[in-house]
Write a structure and sequence with these properties.
Elements: E1 13-14, E2 17-18, H1 20-57, H2 62-143
């Protein structure tokens, strides 16, 4: 802590100088502050002395690793969401494929039945024409 002119306390002036109790109280407070600062300085110096060793043994950037770990968790969540979405889309596609196959089978059955019906009509007409042609041939043969 540094004190400039405006930070200095104003002690009451007594007959023979400042109030001794007030000055001693202020000095005790300053002594406590100085002791706290010394303790912090010693702690920081100790940390600074051990810093080169920690740098040698520590991973390149621990905050980066924590970031990557968090990022890794996020990527895992995104991948899991993608897997869920892929499965949902796959199931939806399977349902759509089944619907389309069912419709195609129904159309194929309808077309086949129509073709069989038309083939039966053509056979019937051909049988009728054949029958008439035989009758006409028989009539020609009998008249000759």
């Amino acid at each position: 802590m540094s004190f400039d002119q405006t930070d200095r306390p104003a002690f009451r002036v007594m007959r023979r100088g400042y109030d001794r109790v007030q000055v001693e109280s202020y000095l005790d407070s300053l002594e406590d502050d100085v002791e706290t600062l010394r303790s912090r300085v010693e702690k920081l110096e100790a940390e600074l002395e051990g810093a080169p060793q920690r740098v040698k043994t520590a991973p390149e950037d621990p905050t980066s690793q924590a970031h990557y770990a968090a990022l890794s968790d996020h990527v895992a969540q995104v991948m899991q969401a993608l897997d869920v979405e892929v499965e949902r889309l796959r199931a939806q596609a399977n349902v759509e494929v089944e619907r389309m196959l069912s419709e195609a089978r129904a159309d194929a059955d309808r077309i086949q039945q129509g073709a069989e019906s038309r083939a039966n009509e053509v056979r019937s007409l051909a049988d009728g024409a054949l029958q008439k042609a035989r009758q006409a041939a028989d009539a020609i043969q009998s008249g000759a």
